[in-house]
Design goal:
Blueprint (H helix, E strand, L loop, with lengths): L2 H35 L5 E6 L6 E5 L3 E5 L6 E2 L4 E4 L2 E4 H16 L6 E3 L7 E7 L4 H7 L2 H6 L2 E7 L8 H11 L3 H9 L13 H10 L7 E3 L5 E3 L4 H8 L4
Parallel strand pairs: 8-9
Antiparallel strand pairs: 1-2, 2-3, 3-4, 5-6, 7-9, 8-10, 10-11
Subcellular location: Periplasm
Function: Required for disulfide bond formation in some periplasmic proteins. Acts by transferring its disulfide bond to other proteins and is reduced in the process.
Organism: Zooshikella harenae
Amino acid sequence: MTLFRKSLIGLTLVLGSSMAAAGQDVKAKITANLQALDKNVKVEKVEESPVKGVYAVTLAGNQIIYSNVDGNYIFRGDLLKLDGKKVTNLTAKERNKEVAKLLKDFPDEKMVVFSPKGKKKAHITVFTDVDCGFCRKLHKEVPQLNEMGIEVRYMAFPRGGEQSPAFATMQSVWCSKDRQQAMTKAKNGEKITADKCDNPVLEEFKLGVQLGVNGTPALFLADGTMIPGYRPADQLAKLLGVNK
């Protein structure tokens, strides 16, 4: 190895360490200023935004705000990139990326999954409540979605929280030997045997709150995009780019 190459590698390591240290310093400054207002604020990460001197700050709960290097100025709202007539919401893009990762990392075995018999072309993750009228309407179209190659992955979101009747019903669904059958019965208003077990209903409910779910059904695409409310099967197929 030549002396020049050794020097270059050494310089790269020094610069890399310096940049990492600078990044930690910026995060520390911004965190300190935010926690001076509210000590419970949790800063997950701080990254440079495409705008010089502006940093994207991700808080717990996947909330993104923007700050200057010292954290003395805070901006709330979405950062948009204008390119002629094209507008790209950079904040939503970053937020969706984090959501997609959280959903991808969540174990399939904790969900109630309705899979196509043939080739799977796409999937949707649905936060659902068994007592929700539009959730029941969507469930009636699950066979149609499956026929089109779309997998439906249910996660529990009893809107009334832990004290609601839906919470207890959904625990029974998740504890049933045949979750798919139990889900269909519950969506049809039929009684489910009150089975008990260690179940992820509360965990999924809390995840839904973290992702900004405030109503059901709340549908998420694989890229993290949230679609609030009911959509007919044909519309969902179009959004997913799935041919009938």
